Amino acid sequence: WLVIDRKVYDVSKFSKQHPGGSRVIRHYAGQDATDAFVAFHNDKSLVKKYLKSLLIGELAPDQPSFESNKKKSLLEDFRELRCTIEKMGLLRPNYIFFSLIFLHFVVLDAASWLTVWYFGISLVPFLIGIAFFTIAQIQMGWFQHDLGHCSVFGKPKWNRLLQIVVINVLKGLPASWWNHLHNQHHAKPNCFRKDPDLNMHPLLFSLGKTLSVEV
């Protein structure tokens, strides 16, 4: 069970079909998932249609709709800030910007191969080709990151389709693998055992006294 806008939903069965992955939604079992729900879903009216069949109740008036380890004033400030940002239109994508990003890393990627093909594999053209290729790959990573967050197009399916082209075809990595891990990271950032970015080997990487002891 989890809470969204003070309404309680049973997502036990639905979690297996959840487009964002089962772990993301299970990380909020027994918790208030309102802010994560707002952050992850652009078309909230569409998603709420699916929630209707999962509704099982509502929080009692005396029950807080936030975790006991969180400050209510901080949550309210964050929600107010998000509303302000949305009203200012700062979350609307700039299609010209993303088009130029896509065009420039495609050109760099092609230039890297053409440089080696035309000038051969002597040291200088090889290093130039590596430079072009490295910059292109880095930019592809950030571009597919925005696509994975469904931040480029209004409809999720177009974001997913272009993400597959960029990360699967151009970078050689599976989009499903990246989304599975990265969605968990943003759902529970820096939460030990829930954020995959913290699942590092304790002998090679650890952060702070608490995490070191817990590992």
From TrEMBL:
Gene3D superfamilies: Cytochrome b5-like heme/steroid binding domain (3.10.120.10)
Organism placement in taxonomy: Eukaryota, Metazoa, Chordata, Craniata, Vertebrata
SUPFAM superfamilies given in the database record: Cytochrome b5-like heme/steroid binding domain (SSF55856)
Name of the protein described by the UniProt record: FADS1 desaturase
One GO term describing the cellular component: membrane
Source organism superkingdom: Eukaryota
Keyword check for Transmembrane helix: yes
Recorded name of the encoding gene: Fads1_1
Keyword Disulfide bond: no
Keyword annotations of the record: Fatty acid biosynthesis, Fatty acid metabolism, Lipid biosynthesis, Lipid metabolism, Membrane, Transmembrane, Transmembrane helix
